[in-house]
Amino acid sequence: MSLVSSVASRLPRVPRPWARGILIANLVGEIGIVVTGGVVRLTGSGLGCPTWPECVPGSFTPVRTDESQIHDLVEFGNRLLTFAVVILALAALYSVVTAWPERGRLQLVAVGVLAGIPAQAILGGITVLTGLNPWLVASHFLLSMVLVALSTALVRGSRDDVSGPGELLVHPLARVVALVTSLVGAVVVVLGTIVTGSGPHSGDADTPARTGFDPRVVSWLHADAVMLFSGLVVATLVAVLITAKTDEVRRAWWAVLAVTLAQGVIGYVQYFTALPIVLVLLHMLGASLLVAALTWGVLATRRHPV
């Protein structure tokens, strides 16, 4: 990243407090577009714009008619938000490069966030062109989770101004447990997308595409994984409370536990109440917050992780 550093030295520098604010805004934007994407899906507006990159053949914007419903406006609005996310990602990259010119890994993470947005747009377009194939819809969501994790890493990494090798802030076994917990958390999120892809909210009000799995069976499998994950979260928290050198690590894993419990409650309530839209949307928001909390928790176990 020496080239980046040399370029950064010639650019106006963003003060670090301002840079951290921009990184937080970028994270909020990444989580926000997940929520608006959920609105698209839950209102059956996934094919409100039936083609891509145009909204309708011959026009990049919706063409309103007397028969038009709200679906095209919902989908087009979500597409417009992509530009806001791009601006935030560009601002985040500029902030990292100028505020922390010596932090090569942090700059690579910022590049990853920016590069992920066009990849997400292309994947979203393919999803539309394939009639909302449930596996592509799931991949679209999972890529968003990756971007949330990377954006969280930017915020967390900006807290460490030191250079050089990282310092482990918990017992090595505690870090191993934290990493295993995060891996199981990723499995939980993946299974959650399969549950959603097998249930009623396909994203299209007229011709829903489903995985073909029994929703009850995959829901049980997801619930079993959640139970395992919850136990690992508690185990990690205990290990951290005993061995952590900083209060930040302890707070981070308390946050992971809090989000996990909230997600569990929402998940069970939505299952037994026939998946009301509001609760499903809250569960999607919770998934984003869980990914962010887990990312922060793992990175907090080492000083200067990125």
TrEMBL record:
Key word Oxidoreductase present: yes
A molecular function (GO) term: metal ion binding
Pathway listed: Porphyrin-containing compound metabolism
Keyword Ribosomal protein: no
Location of the protein in the cell: Membrane
Major subcellular location class: membrane
Assigned GO CC terms: membrane
Pfam families: COX15-CtaA
UniProt keyword list: Cell membrane, Disulfide bond, Heme biosynthesis, Iron, Membrane, Metal-binding, Oxidoreductase, Transmembrane, Transmembrane helix
One Gene Ontology biological process: heme A biosynthetic process
Signal peptide: none
Entry membrane topology: Multi-pass membrane protein
Transmembrane segments: 21-40, 80-101, 108-129, 135-155, 176-197, 217-240, 252-271, 277-299
Name by which UniProt lists this protein: Cytochrome c oxidase assembly protein subunit 15
Taxonomic source organism: Humibacillus xanthopallidus
Lineage: Bacteria, Bacillati, Actinomycetota, Actinomycetes, Micrococcales
